[in-house]
Records
---
Amino acid sequence: MDSPWLTVDEAATRSRRHNKTVLRALRRGELRGHQARANGRWLIHVEDLDLWVRGERPTGRTKVAS
């Protein structure tokens, strides 16, 4: 079974956006993502990516390690 979690590059490919666009959306809080530690790799759940592509806002805050 495939994981429901995507890296930035995978999310960019799936959404047909540039990876810098995905990163910008994560940093602005437009796209919900998770990091295990500060400056760590982002992981994005496919459902959150689909919401972002449809133009819907996330309901929770983006979790970033401090």
---
Amino acid sequence: MATRADSALGTTAPDTCPVCGLRTLERVKPFCSARCADVDLGRWLTGAYAIPVPDDEDEDDEGS
């Protein structure tokens, strides 16, 4: 079974659910169920998944 870290890194097999590691179903692909799709959506909405952005040091100096 895939771990949460594997899922977040996208290292699960192509036909496995990124949330729990079970085989995917065509109607809810890339997930195995609507529940896992909802879990994934919830993670995005709560900020559990985030795309890293490099800090710009110039942003602090814009007002000066």
---
Amino acid sequence: MRVLTASWAAWVSAFELRCKQLPGDPDDTSGACPDCGAEALRLSFSGLERDRVGYASFWCDACLVGIHLSRCLVPEGASMESLHTPVEERSVRVPDYTLLWPDEPPADE
């Protein structure tokens, strides 16, 4: 089993940085992966065009680790797949990557 080294916060920071670069090139993989350091980060949005609200899949193509965010705002101009488009017909194929979950809050003592 592979040990994940990056925190949820590190992944969210990388996601926010990528979002600031949008609309940009949808095939851009720049930005170091918080886990393995490869320049292989990918971002895909699925949602409702009218509302620009949806889901974000953000992962590294090199180590296949990443995060998934739901009910997030899709930046204006960013590519977005419709939730109504069948998965097999979507232009971006999101791999079966290892999801990193939010950090557990400290237990109250």
---
Amino acid sequence: MAEIHGVCEDRFGEMREMLAASLAKDDVGASVAVYVDGEPVVDIWGGYADAARTVPWERDTITNVWSTTKPMTALCALILADRGELDLAAPVAAYWPEFAAAGKERVLVRHLLSHTAGLPVWDEPMTVEDLYDWHLATTRLAGQAPRWEPGTEAGYHAATQGFLVGEVVRRVTGRSLGAFFAEEVAGPLGADFHIGLAAEHDPRVSPVIPPPTLMEPPSDLPANPLLRPEEANTAPWRRAEIPAANGHGNARSVGLVQSVLACGGTVRGVRLLSEEGCARAVEEQFRGFDRVLGTRMWYGMGYGLLEPRPLLLGRDGRLAGRDRPRRPHDGGVRHEPDARPGRRPWHGFPAGRLRGVVLLTDLWPLYSGLIGLSMIVVCESSPGEREDHACAFVQVSSPRASRRWPPSASPPRRRRPAGHTSANTPATRSV
């Protein structure tokens, strides 16, 4: 078994064992964090930060987390909406006038957050270097026509979503998305997460390890630009702000930031959102076939919704349920129902509080196996009125070729067991 460092409460001992087992097999290095009511109850790490297994994964090791950057970007938009500075139902052009070109006057801010804006890729040929030019990337998006009627269909905006939401944030605040996140989110929370990484942090970055093979994107929506794993290991990539793909952090920082949604908007005495602001994340925006992912998806406001899964932690510390996702997703919020009399339902779901943040990522062909991330989610409820909120995140820097689907195969669909029932409302994931 691999040696695991850090602290882990006894009731979460299974997580330590699973991390050690993972590192003893295919994975190279990883960190795991669990927050309950905003406080860390698990903060462990192990393995190595390089493919040659010569540099140990340390407490402060960070890595490029790809689309786990998206929940950070979505959180910025939710914060501005909660402050009354951004109307999620307003046309994007109300904040970004040039965006109204080519029939996009009906694109709303919420469409950007739910992958329904019709701008999943750039129409003009793009190079990776073009992603480092914010003005060029956003100007090209502002000038192109949507591929479908906004809000009626969905297609995963793998790289464009960050530029679209980020430009709206810049127009509203006068600050780049990375600067807003650093000053309004990471800074107040003390979270070691960066969108646009300063050179001083380079020595502690674990490089992305490419997988053995890469899968091509859908033929009708080719990747533009085509991203290769090794791009994330370059200085220009790290210095740029690519708010859908180049965030750098570790389990501790991702868990800390996203536990804001699990804890009603306040963590460690820092209030970033009201409870109503947190609830916006699970407002359903789309349910149906995703034209890019090639499967059915369910999108909220910056977070993708998951079918209910009972995920409970027994008093003995053992997990009573696990959600091992088959489809791509990078994070989310679990909402549990509150059946107490007088509680009002909202957004079609039973009333209640957001009970836990769920950040889940699997190796999925659309990402070309850029990084391996997996997640175990734990939620528990204490007797009486008190509610515990848990956020867990597992980050792995190596590929798991055995878990990849062959290029000719479609992503497997999740099947509900016969007779399965659940009183839970949907969990969500950031996509």
